[in-house]
């Protein structure tokens, strides 16, 4: 090759690098080959890595990446070979003294020139970092919930595997976490939760692929080959430093094999992950150990699909029945209406909580909500249509409201049974799943315009309740049972609950206090201005209305009448 050709090639390379730097708007630039070996480095390498640019040439770009993010970066870079570019991918690199730096990575491949990749890095701003770390609702550990984690992990695992990279999911259990937290004051307990959460995120793919499954139970998606033993020892160190006795508690783990997950669809992979996390959550007291959960993902996916199909059959064949519980006027003791609760034929006497939670987490709740609405209409049809004595509220998940298929089917059902006006009410549950409050309010107003009252459930359980109340126009709010119990215990609890009921009264909204299980709670709710009460004090849910006639504990209201009049 003559000198002119060499000069032209050198000029072309320099031009390409200059264009790359301008394109990526980077603080520093790398040129790497298809094996990610660094061929060229320029820019603020000393500030980022504590090394001059020339010393990086010949090393692997992977060595600069935080170990937990190697699968994510590998997947992104290999994707360039298909798409030609990657823009603004927020990842972590290993900075000076092994500290972690958040950077924004852009890269592209010049097809037809040399096939090398050009990578630009720039320091990540607070807004980009915050966007990368999606914090789930209301959890003091800062981690995702199980359902959100399953969706995130399934998406990332499929992309990482498609790029020839690998990652794993490990379940982490701290069996004595509750006992340790009981020894701590609330501030120290919260600090421990955050420390464990921060540690898991720091060691996870993307810096956010971790979940809190339950108290003392976590999951993390990490790079294959991660030293799990070392990770567990570091978590034990966190508990030791937090423990007033200095002893700390043991930490256990089980890793789920992902090798066979490549042949599984992303949807089924998410179901398998969620199924695994739910088994993990429910393992305590069931005889299942964390080691029992360490099996191949294909097995877990198969079990999850079987469970999903089984639930769909229950819905399709309506293999459940309606049990009711009365909502009672706090002054007169009269039954205002009943709440309709489901009970499954195959699980007599068992709480349906786990089954309903499973339906919510797997996206099947809208199918069940509609099946339940049909059941309740059938239940009401047993009574004379001119009898206004029997009114019933049916639950609707906030998730279902966002499903057009559910909304359309429900409106058709109500149109065909317009005699249910004034007899049927709707109670919005799982309101945290309502992502579009404006659309949710449109749904609620459509019901109200058709003559159906709407109740907002779980009010007072979180700060978001006030946001919902400011946007959603409803007839009734149900004060969350835990909020009622906590108000009884707290010094300012009476003032807090009274303020809630007064706020609702001024807005023309009635209130129902749930979990009223003792005469003391009933009296407390009277003092706080609640309109109605519901709870085991007046009977457990039953499919027989005669169980509430006469009303259990009716003398508590007669006594009030005698005193007042």
Structure summary:
It is built from 21 helices and 17 strands. The chain has 565 residues and is α/β, with parallel strands linked by helices.
What do these coordinates show?
The chain is an alpha/beta fold. It has 3 domains: 3-130, 2-Layer Sandwich (Beta-Lactamase); 135-308, 2-Layer Sandwich (Alpha-Beta Plaits); 320-564, EAL domain (TIM Barrel), CATH 3.20.20.450. Helix content is 44%, strand content 19%. The protein is built from 21 helices and 17 strands. The chain has helices at 3-24, 45-49, 53-56, 70-83, 126-132, 146-162, 177-182, 186-202, 228-242, 266-281, 297-316, 353-361, 365-380, 398-401, 404-416, 437-449, 464-471, 481-489, 493-506, 519-527, 555-564, and strands at residues 28-32, 38-43, 85-94, 100-109, 117-123, 167-173, 210-214, 217-223, 252-256, 320-329, 335-344, 392-397, 424-429, 454-459, 476-479, 510-513, 532-533. The strands form 3 sheets. It has an 8-stranded mixed beta barrel with strand order 10-11-12-13-14-15-16-17, surrounded by 5 helices. It has a 5-stranded antiparallel sheet with strand order 2-1-5-4-3, sandwiched between helices. Strands 7-8-6-9 form a 4-stranded antiparallel sheet, with helices on both faces. A hairpin with a 7-residue loop joins strand 4 and strand 5 (117-123). Helix 6 crosses helix 10 (266-281) and helix 8 runs antiparallel to helix 9. The longest helix has 22 residues, at 3-24. The N and C termini lie far apart (111 Å). The relative contact order is 0.06. Residues 134-139 and 560-565 have low confidence and may be disordered.
């Amino acid at each position: 090759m003559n000198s002119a050709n060499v000069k032209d090639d050198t000029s072309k390379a320099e031009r390409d690098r200059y264009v790359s730097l301008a394109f990526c708007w980077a603080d520093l630039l790398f040129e790497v080959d298809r094996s990610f070996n660094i061929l060229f480095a320029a820019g603020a390498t000393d500030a980022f890595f504590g090394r001059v640019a020339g010393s990086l040439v010949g090393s692997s770009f992977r060595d600069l990446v935080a170990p937990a993010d190697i699968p994510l970066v590998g997947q992104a870079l290999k994707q360039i070979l298909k798409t030609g570019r990657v823009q603004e991918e927020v990842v972590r690199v290993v900075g000076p003294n092994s500290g972690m730096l958040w950077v924004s990575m852009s890269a592209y491949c010049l097809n037809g020139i040399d096939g090398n990749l050009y990578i630009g890095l720039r320091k990540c701003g607070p807004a980009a970092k915050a966007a990368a770390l999606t914090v789930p609702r209301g959890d003091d550990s800062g981690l995702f919930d199980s359902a959100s984690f399953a969706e995130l992990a399934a998406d990332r695992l499929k992309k990482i595997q498609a790029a020839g990279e690998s990652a794993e999911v490990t379940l982490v259990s701290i069996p004595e976490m509750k006992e340790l937290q009981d020894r701590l004051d609330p501030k120290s307990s919260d600090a421990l939760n955050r420390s464990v959460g921060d540690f898991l995120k720091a060691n996870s793919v993307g810096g956010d692929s971790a979940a809190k499954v339950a108290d003392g139970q976590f999951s993390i998606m990490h790079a294959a080959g991660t030293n799990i033993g070392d990770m567990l020892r570091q978590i034990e160190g966190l508990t030791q430093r937090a423990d007033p006795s200095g002893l700390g508690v043991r930490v256990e783990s089980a890793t789920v094999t992902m090798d066979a997950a490549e042949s599984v669809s992303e949807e089924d992979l998410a179901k398998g992950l969620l199924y695994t996390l739910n088994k993990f959550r429910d393992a305590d007291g069931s005889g299942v150990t964390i080691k029992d959960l360490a099996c191949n993902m294909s097995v877990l996916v198969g079990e999850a699909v079987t469970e999903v199909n089984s639930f769909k059959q229950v819905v399709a064949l309506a293999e459940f029945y309606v049990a009711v519980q009365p909502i009672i006027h706090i002054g007169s003791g009269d039954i205002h209406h009943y709440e309709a609760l489901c009970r499954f034929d195959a699980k007599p006497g068992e709480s349906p909580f786990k089954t309903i939670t499973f339906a919510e987490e797997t996206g099947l709740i809208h199918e069940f909500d509609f099946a339940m609405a049909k059941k309740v209409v059938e239940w009401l049809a047993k009574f004379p249509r001119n009898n206004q004595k029997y009114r019933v509220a049916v639950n609707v998940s906030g998730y279902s409201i966002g499903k057009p298929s559910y909304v359309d089917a429900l409106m058709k059902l109500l149109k065909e049974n317009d005699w249910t006006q004034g007899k049927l009410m709707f109670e919005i549950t799982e309101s945290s799943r309502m992502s579009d409050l404006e659309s949710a309010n449109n749904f609620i107003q459509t019901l109200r315009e058709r003559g159906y009252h709407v109740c907002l459930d779980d009010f007072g359980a979180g700060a978001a309740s006030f946001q919902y109340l400011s946007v959603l126009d409803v007839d009734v709010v149900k004060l969350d049972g835990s909020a009622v119990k906590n108000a009884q215990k707290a010094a300012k609890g009476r003032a807090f609950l009274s303020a809630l009921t007064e706020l609702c009264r001024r807005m023309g909204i009635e209130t129902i206090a749930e979990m009223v299980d003792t005469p003391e709670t009933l009296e407390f709710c009277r003092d706080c201005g609640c309109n109605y009460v519901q709870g085991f004090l007046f009977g457990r849910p039953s499919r027989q209305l005669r169980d509430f006639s006469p009303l259990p504990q009716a003398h508590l209201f007669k006594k009030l009448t005698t005193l007042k009049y």
